[in-house]
# Entry
Amino acid sequence: MRDLGTPVLDNHMHLDAEHARGIEAVKDFARSGGTHLLVVNKPSWHLGPLPESRDDFEHVFETTIDVAARASEELRGRAWPVLGVHPGLISQLVDDGYSAEDAGELMQAGLEVAAEYAADSDAVALKSGRPHYDVSEAVWAASNDAMRHAFALAADRDLAVQLHTEATEDLTQVGEWAEAEGLSAERVVKHYAAGELAGVTPSVMSEKDRLERAAEAGKPFLMETDFVDDPDRPGMVMGPKTVPRRVNWLLEHGHEAAVRNAHMKTPAAVYGIDTHATLA
# Structure
């Protein structure tokens, strides 16, 4: 395994040990210098039929907890699960005949199950958000209600929240909603973020131009690939070797402070994890 001389965390990676590369992707990450992972559950409809009740979410969370534990065995550091409900589920349910309100209630029930599993495991965050594409006002309102419910659940259980949202560099209102539910806006993370973001913490897609902006801004940020681990889309969105390679690139260009920020300081502030102490 390559040693980059620093913890290297990919903040948002999916792993599917049953249908795709799974642990082989983790080995690629580790061989490239990666040390820590946040393993986010795949959308529920990728792992089975559309949920009809809260019990139908359990398999998704159990699978994610299991693969994160197996990933930890391959890393100099470790992996933690992130459990929740992908916001795109609401469109799947509405297309299947649900009203927006009923779909939103089922998603909130799924988030409650995720919070229960998080409390009984080493998960560090819930996953929620709202669609990144145009939707009806009713779907938008139900999605925002589900997201606010995630904030309340996370605040009650001392968890962070990872969000999937529309492309934006300003989520100030969303941060205010989190604060109103008792969750620090700092502990709300927008995944697939650009180099800068107002309102909550950005998890920056590991493209060089985005990372340069984040490094130069000097504000808290994380790095991710959003590797989807789908055999029909190999390497999507970015491959598992990308974050270690970009960390090496940042170090070569004198951004040691940014690397400490993204891989030690921000993970500690957002998730309460110590990536340095958990290195083998």
